[in-house]
Specification:
Blueprint: H1 10-15, E1 26-27, E2 32-33, H2 34-40, H3 50-60, H4 63-80, H5 92-104, H6 110-115, H7 118-125, H8 127-134
Antiparallel strand pairs: 1-2
């Protein structure tokens, strides 16, 4: 985890540090940022200490925990855009949006997400392969 670069005062970290914050570091077989994992668990990612982030990173590297937390996060994304009534049969367009939101973040409007669904497009392109992996 890159917490050494982010060990100065808030002003220094905000204005002079060149790397991304440690909470933006991704871990796990299904890559997930620490801040996303923390928020999925109901924690405030801005108030978590380095040792807690390190423990979360270790947990995300365990496949069962990783898949469980990713699944919970995906369900949050599905609910964010009101797709929960379509579960488990999401349309390809809905899968594209959820995939793009997974990559770009929960905070963007659906209009902004629809302007760039490249990650969701990737998922749709390989959807048959993903289905085969699950069956």
């Amino acid at each position: 985890m890159r917490d050494f670069d982010w060990s100065g005062s808030h002003w220094i970290d905000k204005h002079l540090t060149l790397t991304s914050p440690p909470t933006k570091t991704s871990f796990g077989a299904v890559s997930m940022q620490l801040r996303t994992a923390a928020e999925t668990l109901g924690l405030d990612s801005n108030k978590i200490g380095t040792s807690q982030l390190r423990e979360l990173a270790i947990c995300l590297q365990k496949d069962i925990f990783n898949i469980d937390i990713v699944g919970k996060h995906l369900l949050q994304l599905i609910k964010r855009d009101g797709f929960q009534s379509d579960l488990p049969n999401l349309s390809q367009e809905q899968i594209k949006i959820v995939g793009a939101r997974y990559n770009r973040g929960i905070g963007l409007s659906i209009e902004k997400i629809k302007k760039d669904t490249s990650y969701g497009d990737f998922i749709i392109k390989f959807w048959p392969r993903f289905v085969r992996l699950l069956t």
